[in-house]
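TEACHING EXERCISE
Course module: macromolecular assemblies
Task: Read the component lines below, then compare them to the predicted structure of the full complex.
Student: A.B.
Group: 4
Components provided:
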Amino acid sequence: MNMMKHTLPRLLLGLALLTPWAIAQAESPDWSLDAIVDTRASRAEGIRVLATTPGGAAEAIGIMAGDQLLSINGMSLADAQRPQRTLDHALDASGGQASIVLLRDGESLTLNGALAPWAKAGDSGCGHVSDIDNTPNVSQDIHPALITQIDGRSTPLTPANRHRVDAGQRVLVVSEQIPSHLFSRNQLRERTRMQRRTLARAYKALVVEVEPDMRYSIGARLIRSNMDSASIRDNAYWEPVVHRVRAENCR
Amino acid sequence: MTPDPVRQHLQSLPEPPLSDELWLRLSARHQRRANHRRVLRGAALALVLGVGAFWLAPWTPSGESGPSQTHPATTATPDTSVLAIDRALQAAYARGASDEEVAPLWEIRQRMIVKQPASSTLPHLSATGESI
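Instructor-supplied answer key:
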């Protein structure tokens, strides 16, 4: 009993000391290939590289757009049931060094090189982006817009007052909600046709440099000079903009 | 004798010969003045150059002391905007986004790559419509 009295605090102390280590392990940086890979489906010939980031790890290793990744450090990507999960697992387990087997023009190649550490999210604070602050500035031709994606992830379907995002460069995809009465009948017809034809292709992306504790209001600017039929068909009559920036505490 | 005959008489007199020493003195004086003007011009030019250098110096970015540092070698660091877009694209593919959904991201990526290394963000407007 006496021994338990001494052992238990030590165990608790040991656990307390181990906890930060455990958290640090869980948050240890994973690795990035700095490439865009179509992980929606995997075939026998692997997963396809769609592009490499200029100056990034994949480019340095020698990977090219069109290559088919077969394996990373021996972990097969061909016919993977969940290609993205397999790819993530292979990159996380790589320790930053990868031996990549790929197919290029039907030939098998092995490339070796260093991966890029993935920057930890949330290290530098957070801010907000909002599409609901739209008492838009009509004199500037700024009108309502809807944020449909943030960093490639869909926003919730239910309206949100604001979206909390990590500080840094955020990539938003925006749909214009410009009131119909600003278009003539013909312009409106062209716009409806274009939106039906292009669906989500009619949305536009913008990159916002989010500073910590700042709120960015997103809108759609109507470009009056581009309201002819051809420009509307080309979806050139508007652009997404940050129309207001103000300080707002973010936790 | 009226003034006119006096003038006529004086004009008719022969000119007195000038001594060689006088010519030497005049020549030396002329040379000194020319030298003096040259020195003044040089000093003025040096002053203008000095003042100009003093005014221009604060506009020169620090650390740019030679041509070799004016255009630093390109590093392997990816452009942050393109990197952010590429990561957004990969996240979209990871969740199985349709081709229509990823199209706006590909479009902005293409524009960024064409624009590199210029400013890579789309227009940001303040409440007054000014660029921020």
